[in-house]
Amino acid sequence: MLVSRGLSMAFGRTYFDGLMEEDMKVVTLGLVGVGRIGVMHAKNISALNEALSQDGYQVHLKLTDVAEEHARSVAADSGAEFFGSVEELIASGVDGLVIATGTATHPDLIRAGVDAGIPVFCEKPVAVNVAESLPVLDYIREKAGVVQIGHQRRFDAGYLEAKRSYEAGELGWIHSVRAVTCDMTPPPVQFLATSGGLFRDCSVHDFDILRWLTGKEIVEVYAKGSNNGDPAIGEVGDVDTALALVTFDDGTVGTVSASRYNGAGHDVRLELQGSERSVLVGMDQQMALRSAEPGVEFPTGASHTTFAERFDQAYRSEMAAFVELVLGQRKNPCTPEDAVAASKVADAAQESLEKGAPVKVAP
């Protein structure tokens, strides 16, 4: 498997001595959507070639976007081939489809990839809400489709180590969990008007990682929120800061907090406190915190400003994993069912926020 040889952790390998380009097996990926996330995926896919070359493969990228001029520019920069539509791109022949478009387009594009009989990678979520996601899950199952959903934190080194430590029993039993996701600055209000709320577009990553890491289901959520920043955020029905008290199926409790206004930097952390040991994901030289204790200089590095910087390597590893999925060399690392389960928690959190009362998570 490619990941066992280091593909998912590093791109900086040298070309395999003596392997000629004409001997390479080509993996062709189609990318739909080249906004901020799509451009990042295009660069990461192109960068895979150096690592893949030692395994006898190379990646050819094809892409499309309704913003044709921009898409052509991205194609030129990443050495990709541009197509005028999704239909043309798929018909040209691709081994896998990467979807990085707006959420509302995800269901139809997932179905298109499944109908073409190719593995699909789709940024989260599956659809704009759980109700619209369920028919998509049924369609994928009926067609025996393979769809990986983009929850990149599953590939972050810190989260992976925390999961290993927990599963090895090094922490003992978990008594408290604290997850934090804070953006340095809020996205455009136009985005927030259609995002579904802070829990659905931001904290859903925490809900997913908590399920994945602990193997436990979140069964109840009690949420509160505030809006002390731009009044326009409240006017579109969102909050700029929120906190959710979550209860797991074994009674363990935790908190999930999020904010749009963390001027210190992009702050993503997860604290697991156990009966034997505790670990903290995100405690490095670039964490967006400073100690108030005299003489303590840690951390000394500049804080991350965006999620793209914070999870740069995770996004690279995630796309490498999708190539392995296309090649049949690994199991699906994040199924649509996983993504919908996290979205159910986010829905419950949003409902709790609106009702001001605890809400049970739909089974």
Cα-atom radius of gyration: 21 Å
Instruction: Report the top-level CATH class of the largest domain.
Output: Alpha Beta
Q: Estimate the helix proportion, in percent.
A: 25-40%
CATH topology call of the largest domain:
Dihydrodipicolinate Reductase, domain 2
Task: Write a brief structural summary.
The chain is of the alpha/beta class.
Describe what you observe in this structure.
The protein has 363 residues and is an alpha/beta fold. The protein has two domains: 2-153, Rossmann fold (3-Layer(aba) Sandwich); 157-309 and 337-360, 2-Layer Sandwich (Dihydrodipicolinate Reductase, domain 2). It is built from 13 helices and 13 strands. It has helices at residues 36-47, 49-52, 68-78, 86-91, 106-115, 130-142, 157-167, 189-192, 198-214, 231-235, 307-310, 312-326, 336-355, and strands spanning 25-32, 57-64, 81-82, 96-99, 120-123, 147-150, 174-182, 218-226, 241-248, 253-259, 267-274, 278-281, 359-360. The strands form two sheets. It has a seven-stranded mixed beta sheet. It has a six-stranded parallel beta sheet with strand order 3-2-1-4-5-6, sandwiched between helices. Helix 1 packs across helix 12 (312-326), helix 7 crosses helix 9 and helix 9 (198-214) packs across helix 13.
